[in-house]
Design brief:
By secondary structure, the chain is an alpha/beta fold. The protein has two domains: 8-20 and 94-227, Rossmann fold (3-Layer(aba) Sandwich); 22-92, Orthogonal Bundle (DNA polymerase, domain 1), CATH 1.10.150. 46% of the residues lie in helices and 12% in strands. The protein is built from ten helices and six strands; from the N terminus they run βαααααβαβαβαβαβα. Strands 3-2-1-4-5-6 form a six-stranded parallel sheet, sandwiched between helices. Helix 1 (22-36) crosses helix 4 (67-88). The longest helix is centred in the middle third of the chain and has 22 residues, at 67-88. It is globular. The model has no long low-confidence stretch (mean pLDDT 93).
Length: 229
Amino acid sequence: MSDPTRLKLAVFDVDGTLMDSQDLIVEAMTRAFADLGAALPTRAEVLSIVGLSLDRAIARMRPDLPPGDVARAADRYKQNFIALRAEKGGEAAAPLYPGARDALDALAARDEVLLGVATGKAKRGLDHAIAAHGWEGLFLTRQTADDHPSKPHPSMLRKCLADTGAEAGDAVMIGDTTYDIEMGRAAGFRTLGVSWGYHPVAALRAAGADLIVDTFAGVLPALDELWGT
């Protein structure tokens, strides 16, 4: 039984974990490659790199692209995503997964639990998502691609620990991709995979996820198991 007075930290990925933004991501990336005149990526290719920083994601999909073209594609993706956000009603057009808000509220109601996010989004995109979904004040620590190396580097999660004062042994990373799981393990966190996102369950298991859940109803019991309560 863990000490109930010890701080417990739950850090969530955003795209593919809390909200389903795949349509916006795929369309923005497809438009970026079209603008560049490069071969268009498949939907599966785009979803496989969600969570990585843009330059790394594009280079992984098209390793033959020169660095200058990678940078141009990344810039076009950003511009296209901003345009699509305006066309489709902002981040509110990307729905939360069923039960996400209830799970976040239940965790936030527990005095010993602190919440954070670690996302491949830019800060601007995360700020839009927070405003669109009414998450203001919910996350004590918010880490984005602007200030850190790409996942799975543990920099984001180390900053989460510094911001909150929690210990790595009392922290859990929750995400839908192998990058989230690998990042969590590299930072000394326990890891909770979710099956409804962009990477298959078999890949999450192979990456070393401690537990995997199929619905948000399973998130709180799984976190309590990982925290040892």
